[in-house]
């Protein structure tokens, strides 16, 4: 069964600043909870995002178990949106659409994540017991870090 997480956050910055930060894979570990042990493995000569970009990571989503995760950037609309899609990793499906909308207060950032767990009924049971809270917790953590980075004066 597919699940959806939707979040939005107003950032007090210009579109160039927001785009540069969020489209850089090297910044992901800054906004991911430390207990996830999130490490970007791919080294980039140029950190500019592009369609077809493959990014490899290590992540420990549950019980400290280290896993490889690989995503592909499947869509880029410069300074407006991009999509990452899991090629290999812990989910049966992971599709994350990032959207950036300029407004009078800076940039409204929207995240829409569609995801599905493997293992059928067991995956759904795990989702209801812990995975849903874990995914929400990751984005709650991000929200707090981004508030400190972009919205404190």
Please provide a written account of the structure.
With 153 residues, the chain is of the alpha+beta class. It has a single domain (2-150), classed as Alpha-D-Glucose-1,6-Bisphosphate, Chain A, domain 4 (2-Layer Sandwich), CATH 3.30.530. 25% of the residues lie in helices and 39% in strands. It has a seven-stranded antiparallel sheet with strand order 1-7-6-5-4-3-2, with helices on one face. A hairpin with a 2-residue loop joins strand 6 and strand 7. The longest helix is centred in the last third of the chain and has 31 residues, at 120-150. The radius of gyration is 15 Å and the shape is globular. The model has no long low-confidence stretch (mean pLDDT 94).
Outline:
25% of the residues lie in helices and 39% in strands. It has a single domain (2-150), classed as START domain (Alpha-D-Glucose-1,6-Bisphosphate, Chain A, domain 4, 2-Layer Sandwich), CATH 3.30.530.20. The protein is α+β, with helices and mostly antiparallel strands.
Highlighted features:
single chain; 7-stranded antiparallel beta sheet; 153 residues; 7 strands; Alpha-D-Glucose-1,6-Bisphosphate, Chain A, domain 4; globular; alpha+beta
* Residue share in helix: 25-40%
Secondary-structure element pattern, one letter each: EHEEEEEEH
Largest sheet: 7 strands, antiparallel
Backbone shape: globular
What distance lies between the first and last C-alpha atoms, to the nearest angstrom? 42 Å
Backbone CA Rg: 15 Å
Number of strands: 7
Strand order of the largest sheet: 1-7-6-5-4-3-2
């Amino acid at each position: 069964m597919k699940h959806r997480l939707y979040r939005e956050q107003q950032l007090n910055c210009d579109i160039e600043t927001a785009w540069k930060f969020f489209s850089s894979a090297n910044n992901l570990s800054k906004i991911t909870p430390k207990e996830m042990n999130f490490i970007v493995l791919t080294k980039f000569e140029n950190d500019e995002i592009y369609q077809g970009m493959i990014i490899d990571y290590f992540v420990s989503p549950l019980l400290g178990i280290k896993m490889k995760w690989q995503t592909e950037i499947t869509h880029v609309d410069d300074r407006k949106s991009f999509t990452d899609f899991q090629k290999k990793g812990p989910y049966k499906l992971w599709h994350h659409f990032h959207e950036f909308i300029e407004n009078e207060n800076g940039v409204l950032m929207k995240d829409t994540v569609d995801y599905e767990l493997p293992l059928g009924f067991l995956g759904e049971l795990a989702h209801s017991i812990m995975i849903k809270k874990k995914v929400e917790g990751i984005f709650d953590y991000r929200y707090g870090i981004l508030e400190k980075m972009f919205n404190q004066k």
